[in-house]
Fold this protein.
Amino acid sequence: MVAIFGGTLFFLYNKSKKKTDFFENKNPFYSDVVMKTVATGSVVPRFEIEIVPQVSGIIDELFVEAGDKITKGQVVARIKIIPDMVTLNSAETRVNRAKIGFEDAQIDYDRQQKLFDKEVISYEEFKSAKVAYDSAKEELTAAENNLELIKNGVTKKAETATNTLVRSTINGMVLDVPVEEGNSVIQANTFNAGTTIASVADMSDMIFEGNVDETEVGKIREGMPIELEIGAIDKEKFAAVLEYISPKGVEENGAIQFEIKANVKLKEGQFIRAGYSANANIVLERKDNVMVIPEGLLQFENDSSFVEVNTGSAEEPNYEKRWVHTGLSDGINIEITEGLKAEDKVKGEKIDPKKVQEAQANNG
């Protein structure tokens, strides 16, 4: 009974005895602190042109496909015109009338020519007949050319200036050909943008287009360097320079976003496909080789910040509160401007006492 009673007292004493908590101690260290914001967007060509026909009809032949490099003035497609029957009938009627008028003027001109050669009529009378003959001839030529334009879109005298041959307006790469041979196309006019035959862009001049939140837009400015990370291209980063910040924000999902554009600096031989999604890291502020601690070690009381510093030993720690002044933070480490030294041991996360005993045993 005495042994049981003594054992119970010893157990209760050990259970009520306060155990010593052990914490990981970390020293301040020197590192670079970079505060940056991230903008999401995509990389697109600065100039992307949609080529549309100047006449309506059916695509008779395509000469390019996506990925081809073309030059300004190169033929992209040929259009076969399907004339409107009413317009065609009016043009044919005009030609017939012009032929009748020309034949009548020619008969009169030939008669007046003979009479003038025999000096029967004056030069003024002959001149009137010649002017009427020349006018009738020009009218017939104009009517025939008009009929050719309606039928084929080109005249015999100006075959190289035809609207049926669709040409590129810039040098670049064909990004997309959304039509096929046999498709009907509509010409560009005042009321219609026309059917796009091909999209062409200069792939050597790329820009990043993205959005920045209103809380960050006040911290950036034109000319700031940007580091692009493209999801489709691993282990490679691209340099860019911010060149545009929209003066007006747009609401998206309850937040105000401002559009930004940055000029992508491509190295020789680098190629980026249009439409790649990308993240732009914009450096807002940077400090090199400053004293920092992990931001998780910092504690706050009222409007001030402090850390707990171990003034004892590893076996018998004694933590005291130390007020500190902080500077720049990158979200992981934070700059300490006042209150700590490099040899101070800052209280960190709680660790298992068994691991401490094992470490001490190993060191012993």
Remarks:
- DSSP finds five helices and 21 strands in the chain.
